[in-house]
């Protein structure tokens, strides 16, 4: 085990980085405007031992709901995911201890304004309300300008460039209460991206996670491998396990995270030098407050059951629950779905096949899967 060497930052009543214990996070799965359900989520996550709890805010009604949630759970360390509207920062900051923004989403609002001005605004808000910040870089929503500088095969360099660029912006503004995350659904890419970042910026605390890890047990295995490979090298100051779970089981993310940390501390390792995906690979995002229809969770589990007959085929199917990450993070899958309130968008790679109701989608998915298996078989036999 290598000793961590990052600087310390404060998130409410806890500190991460330095010699502090690795903090465990999770995210509310319910829609933020469903105040009662979201308060229940926060309670469940607190009971499971979450140090920090994230909530998504996308519009003014979410802000009103957030105020009620804060009043009901006054001692929770809350992080707000600003999603595509960075301008909501000043409205939510009074109720939270940390702001998370995605550099790839900053262009959605006020597109003519330079990114540096937007970051300056976020820093001013964070400083005014004594909030920490997270620069959250996701493989499926990287700044388009960064993507254009590299080949499609190199998905790590654009993420790394984006993270380092935003670190430099915050440094130039004299703000050091921030951490960084670089996430992908492939644990190998998570390992490589974080190793490279830690080498470039060993001072910056890292939030670790395998995004869209999927359903247990596969999602747990992917996450464990990434954490074991990084934490043993002294990389990682806070973690989030992202699993597709029913709302009432969301605390399992925290339980799994603490189990992995305990195993690492006591030398119980299960990982291999590189994670090798064999056969069917189902990627599904964690059930979070961005999901617009809870049926997404059932759909993900039904996809896993339905594709059992094809488990030996090297095919990737992505099941995404929202419009924020869904479109981009299904592009690299052989077959991808991202779910809207009343229909599911089906894709083959980056190309759209069409939109189908929740009742129709499994049948159409099977048709496309069978077609793909047949095509791959014909290529192999040719």
Provide a compact summary of the structure.
The chain is built from twelve helices and 15 strands. It has 382 residues and is of the alpha/beta class.
Helix count from the secondary structure assignment: 12
Under CATH, the homologous superfamily of the largest domain reads: Dihydropteroate synthase-like
CATH class term of the largest domain: Alpha Beta
Low-confidence stretches are none
Q: Termini separation (Å)?
A: 50 Å
CATH architecture label of the largest domain:
Alpha-Beta Barrel
Explain what you see.
The protein is an alpha/beta fold and 382 residues long. An 8-stranded parallel sheet has the order 8-7-6-5-4-3-10-9. It has a 5-stranded mixed sheet with strand order 11-12-13-14-15. A two-stranded antiparallel sheet has the order 1-2. It is globular and about 60 Å long. The model has no long low-confidence stretch (mean pLDDT 91).
Key words describing this protein structure:
eight-stranded parallel β-sheet; Sulfite Reductase Hemoprotein, domain 1; TIM Barrel; 382 residues; 2 domains; 15 strands
Topology:
Layout: E1 9-11, E2 14-16, E3 23-27, H1 35-48, E4 52-56, H2 60-72, E5 78-81, H3 89-92, E6 98-101, H4 115-128, E7 132-138, H5 144-147, H6 156-172, E8 178-183, H7 187-200, E9 207-208, H8 218-231, E10 238-240, H9 252-265, E11 281-284, H10 295-306, E12 316-320, H11 326-329, E13 335-339, E14 344-348, E15 351-356, H12 361-381
Parallel strand pairs: 3-4, 3-10, 4-5, 5-6, 6-7, 7-8, 9-10, 11-12, 12-13
Antiparallel strand pairs: 1-2, 13-14, 14-15
Helix pairs in contact: 1-2, 6-7, 7-8, 8-9
């Amino acid at each position: 085990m290598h000793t961590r060497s990052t600087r310390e930052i404060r998130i409410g009543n806890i500190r991460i980085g330095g010699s502090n214990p690795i903090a465990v996070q999770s995210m509310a799965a319910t829609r933020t405007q469903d105040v009662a359900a979201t308060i229940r989520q926060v309670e469940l996550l607190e009971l499971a031992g979450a140090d920090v709890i994230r909530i998504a805010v996308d519009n003014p009604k979410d802000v009103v709901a957030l105020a009620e949630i804060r009043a009901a759970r006054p001692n929770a360390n809350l992080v707000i995911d600003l999603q595509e509207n960075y301008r909501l920062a000043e409205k939510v900051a009074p109720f939270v201890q940390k702001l998370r923004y995605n550099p790839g989403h900053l262009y959605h609002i006020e597109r003519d304004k330079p990114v540096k001005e937007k970051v300056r605004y976020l820093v001013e808000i964070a400083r005014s309300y004594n909030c920490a910040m997270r620069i959250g870089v996701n493989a499926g929503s990287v700044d388009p300008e960064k993507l254009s500088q590299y080949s499609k095969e190199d998905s790590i360099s654009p993420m790394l460039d984006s993270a380092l660029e935003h670190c430099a912006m915050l440094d130039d503004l004299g703000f050091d209460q921030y951490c960084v995350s670089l996430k992908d659904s492939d644990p190998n890419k998570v390992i490589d991206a974080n190793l490279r970042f830690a080498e470039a910026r060993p001072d910056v605390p890292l939030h670790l996670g395998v995004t869209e890890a999927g359903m247990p047990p596969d999602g747990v295995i992917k996450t464990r491998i990434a954490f074991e490979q990084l934490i043993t090298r002294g990389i990682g100051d806070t973690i989030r396990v992202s699993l597709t779970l029913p709302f009432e089981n969301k605390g399992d993310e925290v339980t799994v995270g603490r189990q992995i940390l305990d195993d690492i501390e006591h030398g119980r390792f299960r990982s291999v030098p590189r994670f090798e995906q064999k056969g069917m690979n189902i990627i599904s995002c964690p059930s979070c407050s961005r999901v617009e229809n809870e049926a997404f969770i059932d759909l993900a589990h039904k996809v896993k059951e339905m594709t059992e007959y094809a488990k030996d085929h090297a095919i990737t199917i992505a099941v995404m629950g929202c419009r924020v990450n869904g479109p981009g993070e299904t592009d690299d899958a052989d077959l991808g779905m991202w779910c809207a309130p009343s229909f599911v968008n089906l894709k083959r790679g980056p190309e759209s096949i069409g939109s189908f109701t929740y009742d129709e989608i499994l049948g159409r998915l099977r048709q496309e899967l069978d077609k793909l298996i047949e095509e791959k078989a014909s290529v192999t036999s040719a």
